[in-house]
Amino acid sequence: MTDTEILETFEEDAALPGGVMIKATPGMPFCLAYCNSTASQLLGLPRLHLEDPPLAWSNLPPGLAAYLSEAFQAFQRDPNTVLPVLGIQDPVKAAFSVKMHHHCQPVSGVEQHYFYFTFNDVTAWLSLQEEVMNARRLESIGALASGVAHDFNNILMVIRGHADFIAAVAPQDDTVGYSVDQIRRACHSGAGLTQSLLGFARKQSLIMQPMNLGVLVAEVADLCRRTYGARYHIVMDPVLEGGVEVLKKDKKFMIHGCSAALGHCLLNVLNNARDSMPEGGPVEIRHRIEGNTILLSIRDRGVGIEPRDLRQIFEPFFTTKQKGAGTGLGLSLALSIMKQHSGEIRIDSEKGSGTTVTFAWPCLPEEKQSSAPEAAAAHEPPPSTAHMPQRAFLIDDDDMVRSAVAQLLKLQNVETDRFSNAEDAIKRMAAGDLPTLVFVDYTMPGMDGITCMREMIKILRGYATPPYMKLVLISGHPPGYFDEFLKEFDGSPIYLLQKPFSSEDVNRILRLPSKKVLRRTTSRLDITPEMIRKSSPS
């Protein structure tokens, strides 16, 4: 058969438009003998007819040459081998399924091998498949985060509770104070990570309140300075370098946000900046105000990002780091967090010259800043000595959580009776043993926290004169999760605390004036924003 006849047979069998034919003679270099117009456009090869001079192997694009060489080796091992997908970057980023056809015939006493490769563009199909897989992975992450959130919150609650107790009773010096502060920050960061993941996977929304962005930036920068090592230098503008106490008074930094989620977001970007400079270098943090927007930029002098990578830098599971060094979720998570803050995040980078990440948030109007935690704390009511809780029922199935919360209550001179299940506490109350404070976990085996509160309120409403009582539901779920329950007992002294909560949160609950359990529902529920802590769900 002539070369033309062989090519016609190949094209008839292949029935695909894009094809190239390669001739291989033992002892001679491989060469490209034919490339039709479709393959030329797809692969960026010159159009070749059989009568044209063949294209030498060394003139093929390196990626295509490597792929074809591996295909020949696979053919030698198994003539029926199925070739992998071919991915190329030039002339455009694309992927092709490849099939190989083979013919061999003697020419002048020497076996002449002909290979015909067809290329089918599967870029769109693979992109759709990747989207489906990423959606499933995100769903798995959400399910995993939801599944472990309760246990993770309990661990953080134990750590935070005992850290607060140590801070209150142990002799304080610089070393102990710093260590306790770092433990508290780690708990806050861990809670923010879980909450951010759940927000990213659409399992819950972030819990927002007025916050000072400058204070958060200064605290995160201080953490990085202490942990990055001497090779890295965190350089901030003079205002941000002014210190936390000065920044607390600077109202232009006030935004409406979730400090735990934003802290995790900033730390992730700063870690990326560090990782981009293996030899060390400066990381610059600067801010500016433009109208009603506050902008924060983080700049490194690292390796930079390729333009083609920059286009997909926010896509879930995309990473420029080596395999095993990154999850590809950090910047996707940051984008999700910023969207929930009605903000923006932009990345500017040039290969070899470093990267700048710019965040933008709407400033919080001055009239809405009064509900910030600092302002709320300044207007807290004095403790009502007549109704300050003296004894509490503490109900949680986790022994370590019970111990940690009991320590926090001990700081407020509140004695605790501890229960590992709701049923035993209900029996005690039904027998006439009435505390003035109840802490009950929402997620427990058997009777959950809401059912427990319902049973307790039934008992308390049976008294001719309902007693003073504070019922506190502890959980990591956002307040909206309990809307129906709160409406059901609107007007009763029911409060929410989100794990991991602090001694200050407990103290705020205790300082609120006690209320009687109403014998019927009313139209008012006294739950204040200060009682809602930002954290991760239970």
Task: Write a structural description.
This protein has 538 residues and is of the alpha/beta class. The chain is built from 16 helices and 19 strands. Helix 5 crosses helix 10 (330-340) and helix 8 runs antiparallel to helix 10. The radius of gyration is 33 Å and the shape is elongated.
Count of DSSP strands: 19
Uncertain segments are: 372-386, 520-538
Mean pLDDT: 82
The SS-based structural class is alpha/beta
What is the C-alpha radius of gyration, as a whole number of Å? 33 Å
The end-to-end distance, rounded to whole angstroms, is 74 Å
The number of helical elements comes to 16
Number of structural domains: 3
CATH topology of the largest domain: Heat Shock Protein 90
- Report the major sheet: 6 strands, antiparallel
Level-2 CATH architecture of the largest domain: 2-Layer Sandwich
The CATH top-level class label of the largest domain: Alpha Beta
Q: Assign a percent range to the helix content.
A: 40-55%
Q: Which strand-content bin applies to the residues?
A: 15-25%
Descriptive keywords:
538 residues, Rossmann fold, 6-stranded mixed sheet, alpha/beta, Heat Shock Protein 90, 6-stranded antiparallel sheet, Beta-Lactamase
